[in-house]
């Protein structure tokens, strides 16, 4: 890709990865981008690099602006390999005068690459450097989402290089928010938040509070993945505020798998009860849905009802996969319940209910178990389960307002 100018003398020089379909367990049907940025000033500065196979694209993009050897400074905002995988080769090529990173960034770079000879300059929150006409203020964002993570703010342009924050996994030839479909953009941003950052929501809240406290003005957010927010960056900050407070709506998910359609039939009856109780619902059969898409739906759902037949004294593997993944991401402020069919032992409902409790999801009712196939009275129990979940969800909403 050709470089793209964000501001006079500031360029996107990243790479598009159109073909990646799995990002450590997160499905990326539309690929991703590895964004790096170049500021041309008295001290020419490169912010982040790209995943190792894309190093030549980065260098060739820079070459269209200037000889890469003219770069003075490299800022490593984040050490995960999608951004720093090509750091050794880039340093070899450009021979920077200094490599700026957080204290944890230096440790992580040494752990990964064992190059104590690199010209590290460790910077902490509140420190800044002069580039000439511009300066860079550093803001450590530990555990957003790695210990080394930091952001770089250019006050002269009110521009935030936000590392993994405010990004999306979405490869597009467009670079800016006003060039793409807004609804699709927010769908990708929500998926990214739900699958990468949800776990760290309390830290996102602290970061937003800190930015407000410091009175930092932001006209543009340039993340390390996806689209650059230049038209109204306040919209994505507001969305992060809402997502990190885990604000939910009257929406329930029935997440399930089925063996011989008995649990599927039960799921539809649970849905009828949810709807009668005042919640919209979605059926998500884990045979046909990726865990990361289910997790995206969890983001604003108030209720999660789990269904599985019993298989070998446990639940279906697809459900175990999802619950392991979901537990790590720590959704909060939700109600739930479980249901499922069985042949002789029937432990799946017990295990799924335990998973809900382990995630601090409020269990609205005792789970419904049905032997082999549901009869009319069983389906009524499923409908009542849906109604009970809806009642509890609405009660939770009332408590939150009180
Ligand atoms: Fe995009 Fe945490 O790396």
Level-1 CATH class name of the largest domain: Alpha Beta
Mean pLDDT: 97
Q: For the largest sheet, list the strands in their spatial order.
A: 1-2-7-8-9-10-11
As a whole number of angstroms, the C-alpha radius of gyration is 24 Å
- Main β-sheet description: 7 strands, mixed
Bound molecules: MU-OXO-diiron
Strand content: 15-25%
CATH H-level superfamily title of the largest domain = Ribonuclease Z/Hydroxyacylglutathione hydrolase-like
User: How helix-rich are the residues, as a percent range?
Assistant: 25-40%
> How does the helix and strand content classify structurally?
alpha/beta
Stretches with pLDDT under 50, minimum 5 residues: none
Number of helical segments with 4 or more residues: 12
Instruction: Please identify, by name, the CATH architecture of the largest domain.
Output: 4-Layer Sandwich
> What is the terminal-to-terminal distance?
53 Å
Number of strands: 22
- The CATH topology of the largest domain is what? Metallo-beta-lactamase, Chain A
Number of domains: 2
The general outline is elongated
Write a structural description.
Helices cover 37% and strands 22% of the residues. It is built from twelve helices and 22 strands. A hairpin with a 2-residue loop joins strand 4 and strand 5. Bound molecules: MU-OXO-diiron.
């Amino acid at each position: 890709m050709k470089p793209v100018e964000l501001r006079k003398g500031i360029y996107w020089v990243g790479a598009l990865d159109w073909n990646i379909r799995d990002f450590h367990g997160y499905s990326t049907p539309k690929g991703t981008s590895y964004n790096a940025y170049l500021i041309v000033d008295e001290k020419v500065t490169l912010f982040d690099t790209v995943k190792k196979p894309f190093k030549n694209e980065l260098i060739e993009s820079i070459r269209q602006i200037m000889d890469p050897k003219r770069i003075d400074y490299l800022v490593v905002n984040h050490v995960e390999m999608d951004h720093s995988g090509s750091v050794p080769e880039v340093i070899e090529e450009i021979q920077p005068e200094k490599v700026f990173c957080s204290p944890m960034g230096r440790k992580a770079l040494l752990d990964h690459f064992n190059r104590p000879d690199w010209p590290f300059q460790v910077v902490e929150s509140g420190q800044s450097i002069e580039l000439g006409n511009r300066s860079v203020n550093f803001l450590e964002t530990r555990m957003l989402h790695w210990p080394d993570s930091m952001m770089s703010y250019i006050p002269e342009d009110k521009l935030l290089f936000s590392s993994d924050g405010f990004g999306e996994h979405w490869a597009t030839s467009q670079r800016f928010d006003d060039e793409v479909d807004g609804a699709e953009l927010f769908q990708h941003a929500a998926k990214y938040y739900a699958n990468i950052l949800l776990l760290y929501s309390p830290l996102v809240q602290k970061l937003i509070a800190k930015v407000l406290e410091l009175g930092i003005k932001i006209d543009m957010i340039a993340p390390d993945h996806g689209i650059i927010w230049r038209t109204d960056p306040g919209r994505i900050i507001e969305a992060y505020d809402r997502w990190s407070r885990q604000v939910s709506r009257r929406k329930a998910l029935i997440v399930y798998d089925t063996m011989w359609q008995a649990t599927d039939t039960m799921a539809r009856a649970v849905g009828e009860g949810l709807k009668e109780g005042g919640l919209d619902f979605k059926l998500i059969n884990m045979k046909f849905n990726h865990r990361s898409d289910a997790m995206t739906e969890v983001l604003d759902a108030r209720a999660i009802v789990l269904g599985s037949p019993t298989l070998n004294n446990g639940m279906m593997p697809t459900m175990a996969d999802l619950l392991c993944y979901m537990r790590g991401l720590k959704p909060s402020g939700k109600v739930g319940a479980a249901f499922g069919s069985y042949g002789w032992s029937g432990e799946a409902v017990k295990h799924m209910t335990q998973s809900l409790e382990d995630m601090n999801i409020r269990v609205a009712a005792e789970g419904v178990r049905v032997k082999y196939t549901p009869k009319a009275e069983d389906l009524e129990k499923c409908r009542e389960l849906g109604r009970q979940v809806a009642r509890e969800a609405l009660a939770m909403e009332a408590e939150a307002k009180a």
